[in-house]
Amino acid sequence: MNYCLKGKPLVSIISAGLSKFGRHTDLCAREIFAYAAKEAFMRCPRLDPKRDIKALFIGHMGESYEHQGHTGASIADWIGLLNISATRTEAACASSGVALRSGIFAVLSGLADIVMVGGVEKMTHRNTDKVTEYLAMASDYPFEQWNGITFPGLYALMAKAHMHKYGTTEKQMALVAVKNHFNGNMNPKAHMHKEITIEKVLNSIPISTPLKLYDCSLISDGASCAIITKPEIAKKYTDKPVHIIGSGQASDTIGLFERNSFTSLMSAKLASKKAYEMSGVNPNDIDVAEVHDCFTIAELIAYEDLNFCKAGEGGKFVESGNSKLDGKFPTNTSGGLKSKGHPVGATGIAQAYEIYLQLTEQAEKRQVKDAEIGLTHNVGGSGSTAAVHVYRRD
Amino acid sequence: MAAECEQCGKKHLPPRPICDNCLSENFKWIELSKKGKLLTYTTIYVAPNQFKDLAPYSVGIVQFEKDLKIPGMIIGIPEDKIRIGMALIIHFDSIGSQETWHEWPRYYFKER
Questions:
Q1: Do B43 and A152 touch (CB under 8 A)?
Q2: How many CB atoms lie within 10 A of CB A2?
Q3: Do B80 and B62 reside in the same domain of the chain?
Q4: Which domain holds residue B56?
Q5: Whole-prediction pTM value?
Q6: Which residue in A119, A319, B66, B82 has the fewest CB atoms around it within 10 Å?
Q7: From CA A6, how far away is CA A43, in angstroms rounded?
Q8: B97 contacts in A (CB within 8 Å)?
């Protein structure tokens, strides 16, 4: 079936929750997730979670961090939903973007009317070397990992190629970090509350040239969730549902080196094309977007892949101020992965949570006025997976 | 070495059990030139434990023929002398990492 909904909802979000992002020294992943779930339950008093939620899809990247796999069952139990159908989804940093899409499949199949989708990761108890090693598992093992290529390394290879092909500068990349830290400073749940300057980014220590410490997103602990249902019964549970009107997911080679282009992500282009077509929405209609800024270069490439600007013009786009809170395409109002933090499995639905807040006018100081249409862009690995969703307020 | 699909002619590096273009399982080995062109590179300062002793080290993606590319370390060229487009050759040897991972054939790139 080829969905072309022209704004008609695919599913509706009736509630959402997010833990504080940051360092949770005393909590393990299932406990952090419980706080996110509790928020979602509290926001939706008309829902009886134990009676109504029929399935759980939980994005979780790595069992290595806590030596704990089997995340579906463990999370279901720890949020009081023991015995329901509970499934883990894994697509590296897009693990919960694909959890959301799996939840949509479940609702549309008719097998489960009300589904919880979410994501979680606990990372900060591991040192940076270990986290670097675990994250690299999302890349090609025999050729990339075996040659010592890290995740910052892969995005640095894209950054160098982008700079060479289009003249993109380190200063333009730094502007992404400055903007996202500005936004994150207004988000009480962000990992880092600190405004930074271009100089601070440019003078930070090298991680993988040209990417420096402040070009990189944060290693964080955190959890996110949303409760989705069939549009026709959403109003039974809330007066203010947020509708998902477009969903696209695509994959690409596991190795960056096998691709024709190192300056754009084919998966993100294909996923967004599908989501735009399904929703009938044009890039110009987007009022607020959360994009996968795992590294500053990734946000510039996202502008291009999502058609906010032409290929190669991401640097100029951020310079123009278009992606600032008061610009034409406010992007990463939450602070993004850069400042809100990047507990990898939680990120995709943390993006959906921000759009949920924006489209229900609950984003407080970072509220985009009259936001009607939102978009999330969640990327796994170096672009081997991308999930893009388009949202509309009721 | 690379593998060429005997059905559709697509060349694969690394070789695969099934051609992703035509799904054939029939391949023949072809020999590639050791000379290639650097498409992009980076110098890694923060490395995983297995490579910590080597850091900082440079890595790049080298193209041997159209669509035939592999990533690897660039040895013996200072970071500020590495340029996109420069000519490199592949050299088969260990790069001396400390890891305890499975054995794979090792190689790196150096100047011609």
A1: no
A2: 6
A3: yes
A4: 33-111
A5: 0.96
A6: B66
A7: 29
A8: 148
